[in-house]
Amino acid sequence: MSNPTIRINPRQEQIIRLVRSQGYVSNEDMAQQFDVAVQTIRRDIGFLAEQGLLTRHHGGATPNSTIENIAYNERQILNLKAKDAIGHCAASLIPDRSSLFINIGTTTEAFARSLGGHRDLRVVTNNLHVASLISGRPDFRTVIAAGELRPKDGAILGAAAIETLDSFRTEFGVIGISGIADDGTLLDFDLNEIQCARTIIRNSRRVLLLADHTKFSRQPMGRVGGLADLMI
Hints:
InterPro entries: Carb_Metab_HTH_regulators (IPR050313), DeoR-like_C (IPR014036), DeoR_HTH (IPR001034), NagB/RpiA_transferase-like (IPR037171), Tscrpt_reg_HTH_DeoR_CS (IPR018356), WH-like_DNA-bd_sf (IPR036388), WH_DNA-bd_sf (IPR036390). The protein is α/β, with parallel strands linked by helices. It has helices at residues 10-22, 27-34, 38-50, 72-75, 80-91, 106-113, 128-133, 159-165, 191-202, and strands spanning 25-26, 55-57, 60-62, 99-102, 122-125, 141-144, 148-150, 155-157, 170-176, 179-180, 185-188, 204-210, 222-226. The longest helix has 13 residues, at 10-22.
């Protein structure tokens, strides 16, 4: 569920996208682009910085560090419509009675919410939220990876999780990602997440990458693989 204490308006969401795509952006440039007063931009930047969505500087703002992802509850409220649309589109590619991996992320959770019309799926996941979303379906067979639970986002990680994922081979692997480089390299922040994603890719006959346009402006340090590793 989204954090009810955080609300960002459409202009603030556009500010986040602009800063992440361009790096440093001055308050004056943003005020001109959004046709508002500089004071309004300063208030927006101050609020977004307090929420950890960007870094405030004198006269402007920059993206957050490339070595740490933004908080889960903040990711939940960004690009909701796009994530829901991506999840719905990806779900339409999954036939009934399929087997699939689903990994960590808010977009893969949107995908899981879109599986309501499916029947007899066999799901392997290291995402506790995904498991909860599909837990009410008696015709679904769900395997939850062993491992260490990361409470902040429901991720299940570690050597035991990798061993669980590596014990299966599925028709589909449904993965999210934190960033996509210009050359098609798939990027993420956390080594444990990267290892789980690689295991899913290796053990899936076809891989669905779920990513909205903002992932092309983010450059985490860790390499998962490349677009060439994906069949869909």
